[in-house]
Amino acid sequence: MIHTDKLSKNFTVKKETVEAVKAVNIDVAPGELVAFLGPNGAGKSTTLRMLTTLLKPTSGTATVAGVGVSSDPAGVRARIGYIGQGNGGGHSYRVIDELVMQGRFYGMNTTDSTARAQELMKSLDLTDLAKRTVIKLSGGQRRRMDVALGLMHSPRLLFLDEPSTGMDPQNRANLWEHIMRMRAEHGTTIVLTTHYMDEADSMSERVIVIDHGQIIADDTAARLKANLAGDLLAVEVAADSAPDVRGLLGRAAAGGELQENAYDGVVRFRLRLTHGARLAPGLLKQMNDAGAPAQSLELKPPTLDDVFLELTGRNLREGAEV
Ligand SMILES: Nc1ncnc2c1ncn2[C@@H]1O[C@H](COP(=O)(O)OP(=O)(O)OP(=O)(O)O)[C@@H](O)[C@H]1O
Hints:
This protein is of the alpha/beta class. It has helices at 44-51, 73-79, 95-105, 110-123, 139-151, 169-186, 197-203, 221-229, 242-252, 276-289, 304-312; strands at 2-13, 16-24, 27-28, 33-37, 59-64, 67-68, 80-83, 157-161, 189-194, 206-211, 214-219, 231-238, 259-263, 266-273, 296-300. The protein contains eleven helices and 15 strands.
């Protein structure tokens, strides 16, 4: 559905070249739900804007829904839906009119466009709001209308640029419920950008992590977390038996750091343990055998932020919602 070859975009800002996207190779199969995840300024939107023909690549190629973005941008636009970061609709029209106009814009006749608008309003829980003017919609309702606008011409491929930024958690959950239902009903391929790592984690089947214009990881969230970050294990032992297990735990820390701090006659060790749930029982037994049984144990699964930290040495985003 999407294939890019060394897709790149440079901007010139005050005579300086900003390499926003650097030779990215992306493949998305029909029906996939893929999230581009990365911190602010990573190049997510620029990539999306090239794929949706809003920006011309500096170099490299991209084929979207079987059509080249440079050779036939109009052909790409006819085949995709795009929901940008801003609001798509005008202000003074009614929801139904806005949707029907969108369909007409894509060459549908009024009857078909009205039928499609009604179908989408039903799926996206907008029927009761059909006659409301767009300006009177709440943020969440407006975003749902944006999704309906993007789907009017039944694209097989839908791009969503930060679909839920600025929404409260309830509206985000609600929007996602609608998007997932649309997807189940129509088999739409979805590519989205987000800096909410929990969203990338729970909603998408595949996460493409972008940093400084480059793809630094591309896999399912589960595999990224299992392979890169490892679980966080905290284990406490009596202070006088800590020397008996320090070496053992250091070796288990998968080459990573073993942290420790002592308090109230106890030493608390912290380490990353790849496949922690599987390995922790064996480690506990080894600690027992070494004469230093664990007094408490805590095993925390990693987040995509841990993956990002592991890959870049930085946090994904200050203030990101988790
Ligand atoms: N029109 C432009 N002119 C100049 N520089 C730009 C332009 N658009 C983007 N950039 C720069 O390109 C880089 C990538 O920006 P982009 O918007 O793609 O990041 P992003 O990952 O989508 O970030 P965010 O999560 O904040 O939306 C940034 O350094 C940005 O400042």
